[in-house]
Amino acid sequence: MEINIGITEQDRAAIAEGLSRLLADTYTLYLKTHNFHWNVTGPMFNTLHTMFETQYTELAVAVDDIAERIRALGFMAPGTYSAYSKLSSIKEEEGIPDAQDMIRLLIQGQEAVIRTARGIFPAADKASDEPTADLLTQRMQIHEKTAWMLRSLLAN
């Protein structure tokens, strides 16, 4: 059935493409955060183990929200590791970094997601797609706060 929500198919496609990149970044950051949760060691173990769990749990909800927005726009959401590796600006880690490097890598990942989300705004604004703009704003607020909290762990 044809979708008639006041946004052209071309504009919906552009927005869905951007959201697919956001989904890939978010899922990749989820996986990295979960991996670090499992494998963190050192004097900050309890703090980081708990913090990372909070973060990956929030990211798991986010991937669902982003994928469902793509579907609401009439497009299929990517859902494979191979698709995510092509779409994501976040790279996987080889090996297990130490706790301080985990924090730095997660800050970089949070900031990458923010940049990806910010890059979708022109397409959403052009189409007056307020639901996508709202989703992007919420995601950016969460990632900016999380990046700040992680950076605070590195302060002297």
TrEMBL record:
Residues 17-155 form the Ferritin/DPS domain. Keywords: DNA-binding. It comes from the Bacteria. GO terms for molecular function: DNA binding; ferric iron binding; oxidoreductase activity, acting on metal ions. InterPro entries: DPS_DNA-bd (IPR002177), DPS_DNA-bd_CS (IPR023188), Ferritin-like (IPR012347), Ferritin-like_SF (IPR009078), Ferritin_DPS_dom (IPR008331). The keyword Plastid does not apply. Belongs to the Dps family. This is Starvation-inducible DNA-binding protein.
